[in-house]
Structures are given as C-alpha cells and as structure tokens.
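Slide 14.
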Amino acid sequence: MKGKDIARFVILVFIILFIALYTSQASGYYPNTESKKTTLTEDAIEKFEQDVKEGKEIVAKNYLQEEKHYNNKASKLGMNISNLIEKGFNKTMNAFFKEIDKAVKSK
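Slide 15: predicted structure.
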C-alpha cells in the first residue's frame, strides 16, 4: 500500500466512526439507557413514600425495576468481536501514530 492509500483508509475509518458516534449521540441512546437506571416509576415512588411513612428500612433495590438481561450466544459473540476489533484498532492507531512521530522527528 502506498502512503496515499493508507491516508485515505485512515480518513475513511475516522469518518465512519464519527458518523456512528454522532448517530448514537443524536438519537439519545446513552442518556436514555442511563435515565432508565435512575428513574423510578410512579408505583415505586408511591411504595417508597408509603415505606417512609411507616418507618420501614429503606433499601434502594426494593424500588428499582429488574433489568432484563438479553445475554445469549449471539450477543456474546458480538461482544467478543467488538473487543477484538477494539484491540486491533488500538494497536493499529498506536503503530500509526508512532510512525507519524518518527516521520516528524526525522525532519
């Protein structure tokens, strides 16, 4: 591969990553998942208030909804592939920036 091809490939990867991150941010995926963890339902609030009035011991997990787990072979495979891609990307980027560092220092 020529330097020009490598540069095009790296720029294309950055553009794809930017679009993916921007889309997930714009859709509110992360804030939505986090708000589900911290938001109580109306029933849980009423139960909490009743327990406070009755002087019962307050334990947070008694008022939170159970989170569904969707772990299966496909999701585990996807996570393993994602981790493999992450490790490869990190190694590639570290090598790429070391080469850029060498090129800049040699001039």
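Speaker note: The mean pLDDT is 82.
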